[in-house]
Design a protein that fits this description.
Elements: H1 2-17, E1 23-29, H2 35-43, E2 48-53, E3 55-59, E4 71-73, E5 76-82, H3 94-104, E6 112-118, H4 119-125, H5 127-135, E7 141-146, H6 150-166, E8 173-174, H7 175-180, H8 193-215, E9 224-228, H9 229-234, H10 236-246, E10 259-260, H11 267-270, H12 274-283
Parallel strand pairs: 1-6, 1-7, 2-6, 7-9
Antiparallel strand pairs: 3-5, 4-5, 8-10
Length: 293
């Protein structure tokens, strides 16, 4: 009771003291859904300030015996990382995490300010941030980014390992890589069938959790927008016009992305063992995903 009252008072004080941007927004997504590309496009608009992930996890340093709470995620000891608190081994307090959230929405001249947050781990380990976002109510604009072709998403996950090996742990390819290192990925993808099937099963199981998690943000129908990865890929101009109108900024502004698409659209010509992959998809009931995205 006392804690709840304290939180309410803290929120009231922040609303009184802080000059928030006109249109605060958040992008909810799952990994390999085009979120970095979307953020890069938005960041190129002069009236939009869109940060990448500002709330994430990293492994706890070996041998560290911190008394502060850590989190178990995928069988590893993880620690929360929030913006400028990345160097703190003990992780940020709730107050620091919430303050960083509000810093994103303030101290900017842009009309619309926001960031992206990933459902897989960040919803679970940043419940305090999620709770704060929900308390913003209709003031917050919510963009939900979906990629429905789970087969192509699984291939993208596996291809990401090649990117990380060549580009020192990075999960995406940037336009600068085109000039700095020549050809991006100069060989076809050799897909490990066992890993592919395992990834597909995991993605299918996790989809229901994603829908449950984002449902709590859909209480204000005019304040959330569904964006499909396929539309972002094939109907980029029309899709981004919808997004910019949703954020109440100039929809005619020309946008550019610094991100390159790493996994080719034409999978049969990009995967070395495509026939094996296709047979495995049919054998495990995933063949309905063997279509263009």
């Amino acid at each position: 009771m006392i804690q709840s009252l304290t939180l309410s008072i803290e929120r009231a004080i922040r609303r009184f003291r802080v000059r928030r941007c006109e249109v605060p927004f958040v992008i909810l997504f799952r990994e390999r859904s085009g979120s970095t590309h979307l953020c890069s496009l938005l960041q190129s608009h002069p009236d939009v300030h869109c940060r990448m992930e500002n709330f994430w996890l990293r492994p706890l340093p070996p041998g560290h015996n911190s008394p502060h709470p850590t989190f178990r995620f995928r069988e590893r000891d993880m620690i929360r990382v929030v913006g400028t608190y990345a160097s703190q081994v003990q992780g940020p307090t709730r107050k620091q995490a919430v303050q960083h959230l509000h810093d994103i929405f303030t101290r900017r001249s842009n009309k619309a300010c926001g960031f992206k947050i990933k459902q897989e781990s960040q919803f679970q380990c940043f419940a305090d941030v999620i709770d704060e976002l929900l308390h913003m109510g209709p003031e917050l604009r919510v963009i939900i980014l979906r990629r429905r072709n789970l087969f192509r998403k699984a291939i993208s996950h596996l291809n990401m390992q090649r990117i990380q090996e060549k580009y020192r742990g990075r999960a995406n390819l940037w336009q600068q890589d085109l000039t700095s290192k020549g050809q991006l990925l100069d060989s076809k993808i050799q897909v490990d069938i066992r890993l592919l099937v395992g990834k597909m099963n995991w993605l299918c199981n996790e989809e229901a959790g994603f829908e449950n998690d984002i449902r709590q943000f859909q209480k204000h129908p005019d304040r959330f927008l569904d964006v499909e990865y396929a539309d972002l890929l094939h109907q980029s101009n029309a899709t981004m016009t919808r997004v910019l109108e949703f954020l109440e900024v100039d929809p005619e502004q020309s946008l550019t992305s610094r991100i390159c698409k790493a996994t080719p659209i034409d999978l049969p010509s990009a995967i070395e063992n495509y026939e094996q992959v296709k047979q495995a998809a049919r054998r495990h009931g995933f063949d309905h995903f063997l279509v263009d995205e």
